[in-house]
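Sequence and fold
=================
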Amino acid sequence: MNAFDNASHNSSSLAASADDAEDPCAYHKPLYTDERFWLVAVCGTSISIVSIFENFLLFFVFFTRAEYRKTCYMYMMLLAIFDIFISVSYVLLMSVNVLMDYYDSVFLFRAW
């Protein structure tokens, strides 16, 4: 392989990367995908699932016991309901987005 062949090989690979940069439909993985997977999808989802379980238990206690159906306890019951909503939203919005990037899943991309 002479210098001319080597130069033409380098220019063709540069042209291919320039085509990818101009293509509006090209997908490039974001930075720190592995770290985001472990922090958001594994740790964050685990904490969110524990939060869903504990807040559901708290809501169940406040809803089923007659002595806790007073206005002073209503705040805690509503806080548990809204915290369940926030935890479910975290799993659906944040974790699905990171899993989509980590696994390069078209199905998760369409679902998100």
